[in-house]
């Protein structure tokens, strides 16, 4: 059972929601902007239809909520120190491999 929903030409979806829905759809979206949901979980066609509709509604609800913008953060001083210490440690280990004297 396949459910087809034309995302591009749907008058009921706002433009930003339609764009997010197309991004969420991934491989389920055709070149024409039609979302294809395949439902084969249940034995009856009725239950498969209902399942496909529920999944379409869930996708639209997920697309309706705009993503929260990323808040830029900085690494803590302690994490910078840990990173540099681990780099020094790896460099020390690798320096011993070549047989050349390391700069301790």
Helix percentage range? 40-55%
The helix-strand sequence is: EHEHH
Broad structural category: mainly alpha
| Total of helices | 3
Average pLDDT confidence is 92
The beta-strand count equals 2
Largest sheet: 2 strands, antiparallel
Low-confidence stretches: none
Supply Rg: 26 Å
Strand content: 5-15%
How is the largest sheet built, in terms of strand order?
1-2
* Distance, first to last CA: 69 Å
The global form is elongated
Secondary-structure map with pairings?
Layout: E1 2-6, H1 15-25, E2 34-38, H2 45-64, H3 77-98
Helix pairs in contact: 1-2
Descriptive keywords:
mainly alpha; two-stranded antiparallel ribbon; 3 helices; elongated; single chain; 104 residues
Notes on the structure:
- This protein is mainly alpha-helical.
- The protein has helices at residues 15-25, 45-64, 77-98, and strands spanning 2-6, 34-38.
- It is 51% helix and 10% strand.
- The chain is built from three helices and two strands.
- The longest helix is centred in the last third of the chain and has 22 residues, at 77-98.
- Helix 1 crosses helix 2 (45-64).
- The mean pLDDT is 92.
- A two-stranded antiparallel sheet has the order 1-2.
- It is elongated.
